[in-house]
Design a protein that fits this description.
alpha+beta; Heat Shock Protein 90; 2 domains; five-stranded mixed β-sheet; four-stranded antiparallel β-sheet; 10 helices; elongated
């Protein structure tokens, strides 16, 4: 699983929660289609019921009367015919109708299918005496759709349907253009305008188009913030390197000119060495930050809180003890599991512990690690009794190259690296001052179910 996959899963969960219950385009289009079908059905029903129903009924009555007269005539003639079966076959073929001859007991004496499958049928029956026994003659005459379409009432219904469809298509086209196509065109224009310095604005729409536009606005804001952050990083690195480098060049020039005592020359060399170490530390820290940002693949595995506690215990207890710091670890989330890269979490805790060590002035130095389950996250608190941070600076300590230590010539990247790693795992990191007077760093990582 890549870092991008982890971030994408966290984003999808947040997006689902944010847009849950809001009507999406697919539902809106489904409702529009149902409304169109309903209006079409109502209009056709109204046209049929109030305009052409009586005339259609009259037309069918005429066709039914013709069918009744035809079957009565066939029955009369068949009763007088010497060969009634041949006569019935000839008549069925002539009128292109299905003909069935049954006796009064319901037994079929003759079945003559002639017409093909039709949509509309006219049926009629009549009594006849065939070979000295009473029988019933039934005919079924189909009405071809082309013949039906030639009917004046049918043509009027077809024209009404065509007009309704044209009006609906015109209205729907205008609505779709104004509500959906035009906003997409505006968004495309905003994307192209951003290249020329025009900032896009967010929208109150709650469907996919509104979500897309607001996501684009958020992306542009993130890009602007990233550009601003990169500019600050470059300016800070330039300043932090330029200051010691100027001193190195100055002392080196003095040594190069000669005429210095051995003691002063040795002091200058030592100063050059210390300044070089400061530059090296800054470059190494910056290299760690860059590598953390450029890392596209994590090696996540399923971890329990016991695994985390064991890692902290084995990695840092002795190291911190050698610096005079006592460490206590309290695990109140023993059943919780997370998916994370253990090597990256090791860097997170190492940087947090290192930051705490730099700001401890008490004789008794203490760090506490507390693990708690919070909703769908594992909350890890690292609590120290150091000097803490001003309330106005708490939100800035995770920014690259920011330091709350005014006496430090080179700003740090340790907590910025922690933020990149934690957010790369789909989590959050924050800080607050505690009752000991020190700093509490809180990490929230998603729980694996």
């Amino acid at each position: 699983m890549s870092r991008a996959d982890i971030k994408r899963a966290a984003f999808d969960a947040s997006a689902d929660e944010s847009y849950r219950g809001r009507m999406s385009l697919r539902y809106r289009m489904s409702i529009i289609i149902l409304i169109i079908l309903g209006l079409n059905a109502l209009t056709l029903s109204g046209w049929y019921g109030f305009v052409i129903k009586e005339r259609v009924t009259e037309d069918f009555s005429v066709m039914q009367a013709d069918a009744d007269a035809t079957v009565w005539s066939i029955g009369e003639t068949a009763s007088l015919s010497e060969n009634p079966y041949d006569f019935l076959r000839a008549e069925a073929q002539r009128i292109d109708a299905n003909l069935i001859l049954r006796n009064l007991e319901g037994e079929t004496l003759l079945s003559l299918p002639q017409s093909k499958q039709k949509s509309i049928w006219i049926r009629a029956s009549a009594l006849a005496e065939i070979d000295g026994q009473p029988c019933i003659i039934e005919i079924s005459k189909g009405i071809d759709l082309r013949s039906f379409a030639a009917n004046a009432q049918a043509r009027s219904l077809i024209w009404v349907e065509i007009i309704i469809i044209c009006i609906i298509l015109l209205i729907v086209s205008c609505v779709v253009y104004m509500l959906y196509i035009r906003p997409v065109e505006d968004l495309d224009e905003a994307v192209r305008g951003y290249k020329h310095g025009l900032r896009p604005i967010s929208t109150d729409r709650s469907d996919e188009i509104g979500k897309l536009q607001n996501s684009f606005v958020d992306l542009m804001q993130d890009l602007d913030e990233e550009k601003s952050k990169q500019s600050r990083i470059i300016a800070s690195i330039s300043h932090d390197i330029k200051t010691p480098l100027t001193s190195v060049m100055g002392y080196a020039e003095r040594i190069k000119k000669g005429g210095l005592s051995e003691e002063r020359a040795a002091r200058y060399v030592d100063t050059i060495y210390q300044k070089s170490l400061a530059i090296r530390d800054l470059i190494n820290e910056f290299d760690d930050y860059i590598s953390c940002n450029m890392r596209s693949q994590y090696n996540p595995m399923l971890l329990t809180t016991r695994d985390l506690c064991s890692m902290i215990e084995s990695e840092y207890r002795d190291e911190l003890a050698s610096s005079g710091v006592s460490v206590s670890i309290e695990n109140r989330a023993e059943e919780v599991r997370i998916v994370a890269d253990i090597s990256q979490l090791r860097r997170v805790f190492g940087n947090i512990f290192g930051n705490s060590l730099k700001h401890m002035e008490n004789e008794v130095k203490r760090i506490e690690v507390l693990l708690l389950p919070k909703h769908n996250a594992l909350e890890i608190s690292v609590i120290d009794n150091g000097t803490g941070v001003g309330e106005d600076k708490l939100q800035k300590i995770f920014e690259p190259l920011y330091t709350s230590d005014v006496g430090r010539s080179v700003a740090g990247l340790g907590l910025a690296i922690c933020k990149e790693i934690v957010e790369g795992h789909g989590g959050k990191i924050s800080a607050r001052n505690n009752s000991y007077g020190g700093l509490t760093v809180v990490i929230n990582l998603p729980i694996s179910h």
